[in-house]
Design a protein that fits this description.
A 3-stranded antiparallel β-sheet has the order 1-2-3, with helices on one face. Strands 4-5 form a two-stranded antiparallel sheet. The chain is globular, with a radius of gyration of 15 Å. About 35% of the residues lie in helices and about 10% in strands. The model has no long low-confidence stretch (mean pLDDT about 90). By secondary structure, the protein is of the alpha+beta class. The chain has helices spanning about 5-20, 50-65, 85-90, and strands spanning about 20-25, 35, 40, 70, 80. The protein has 2 domains: about 1-50, no CATH class; about 50-95, no CATH class.
Length: about 100
């Protein structure tokens, strides 16, 4: 069984690869986890399962040809949720690799 620290580090490495960047080494320190290929820093969170309604929102957006989902809780800020591959291709201007 993989412990949470190893699982988190693996997730950071995977996300850094997707974002054409690298994991920022920070043993025991607070701060950003990833720097992408454009020099933007990211906090990386990996969870076991998304809430089911997020999948429903994505299916709806995808079926309508939408770019992504924008959402906020009452009296909170807006968040944009798009697939990472779409961000890399259309925002960063990079082509798929793998």
């Amino acid at each position: 069984m993989v412990n949470n620290r190893t699982r988190g580090r693996n997730g950071e490495n995977e996300a850094a690869s997707v974002l054409r960047g690298k994991r920022i080494s920070r043993t025991g320190e607070s701060g950003s986890d990833i720097i992408d290929g454009l020099g933007r820093t990211w906090e990386c969170k990996r969870i076991r399962n998304w809430p089911s309604y997020i999948h429903k929102w994505f299916k709806q957006a995808e079926s309508q040809g939408d770019f992504g989902v924008i959402v906020r809780a009452d009296r909170q800020q807006w968040f944009v949720i798009i697939p990472a591959e779409r961000y890399v291709k259309e925002v960063m201007g990079a082509e798929d690799h793998d």
